[in-house]
Amino acid sequence: MLAKLLLVEDEKGLALTVTDRLAAEGYAVDHAADGQAGLEMALAGNYQLVILDVMLPRKSGLDVSRAIRQGGLRTPVLMLTARSQVVDKVVGLQIGADDYLTKPFDMLELVARIGALLRRAEPQPATHPDICQFGKVRIDFRKAQARRAGEPVNLSAREFQLVRYLIARRGEVISREQLLQEVWGYHALPETRTVDVHMAWLRQKLEENPRFPEYFVTVRGQGYKFAG
C-alpha cells in the first residue's frame, strides 16, 4: 500500500514540484496551502508523514506541529525552514518535529529524509505477550493454558508455539515454508502437510466454527494468518 503523505506548503510552485516528484517516487500526496487547513487535514486524515513549512498563512508550521502532538498523533513531521531560521529548527524539534530540511533543498535529499523517517516509524517486531484473548478464547502462554468459553482446551507444546508465532505477527500472511522453518526448525524443507494438519487441529480446538474459521485464516496460494 502506498505511503500517504501530507504536504503543507503555501508556495504554489514548490508545492507542485514536490507533489509531482513524490508521486513519481510512489507516494500518495495530499496538499494544504495554509497552516489551518493543514492542521485540520493532519488530524482528520490517516497520514504516514507530514511535510510542514514553517512560514505559513493562518497558522505557522510551529503551531501546527505543536497542535498535532497535542492531538495525540505520533505521525512523523518533517519541517521545511529557511536557511536563516536556526531558532525555528531548534524550537520545531523541541515541540515534536522529527526532522527538518533547509530551503532551498535538493529533491534527492527530501526523498531520502522521507524514506528514513518512514523506516523509523515502521512498527517494531511484535512482542510476545504472556496472555492473549480473542473471541471466547483466552491463552496464557506463560502457564501453557488455553480456555474457550471458560472451558480448558488441551493444546500441545507445538500448537502453543504455532499459535504464539501467528499471533505475534497478527494480520501478516505467513507461508507454510516459513512456519516449518520458524516453528518446527525444518531448514531443508520436506514434503509435508504438517502445517495444514496442525492448523486444522487448532481450528477444531479454538474456532467457533472450524469449517469457517474467523481467526486462523487460510490465504489461498500463500499460507496462513491470524486475523484476530
Q: Tell me the CATH superfamily of the largest domain.
A: Response regulator
What pattern of helices and strands is seen along the backbone? Answer: EHEHEHEHEHEEEEHHHEE
Computed CA radius of gyration, to the nearest angstrom: 24 Å
User: Approximately how much beta-strand content do the residues carry?
Assistant: 15-25%
Low-confidence stretches: none
Assign an overall shape: elongated
**Number of separate domains:** 2
Q: Tell me the total number of β-strands.
A: 11
**What is the CATH level 1 assignment of the largest domain?**
Alpha Beta
Mean pLDDT: 86
Instruction: Supply the helix-strand structural class.
Output: alpha/beta
Can you tell me the CATH architecture of the largest domain? 3-Layer(aba) Sandwich
Number of helices: 8
Cα distance spanning the termini: 21 Å
Helicity range: 25-40%
In CATH, the topology of the largest domain is named: Rossmann fold
Written overview of the protein:
It is a single chain. With 228 residues, the protein is α/β, with parallel strands linked by helices. The protein has two domains: 4-121, 3-Layer(aba) Sandwich (Rossmann fold); 131-226, Arc Repressor Mutant, subunit A, CATH 1.10.10. Helices cover 40% and strands 21% of the residues. The chain contains eight helices and eleven strands. The strands form three sheets. Strands 2-1-3-4-5 form a five-stranded parallel β-sheet, sandwiched between helices. It has a four-stranded antiparallel β-sheet with strand order 6-7-8-9, with no helix packed on it. The protein has a two-stranded antiparallel sheet with strand order 10-11. Strand 10 (216-219) and strand 11 form a beta hairpin. The two termini are 21 Å apart. The mean pLDDT is 86.
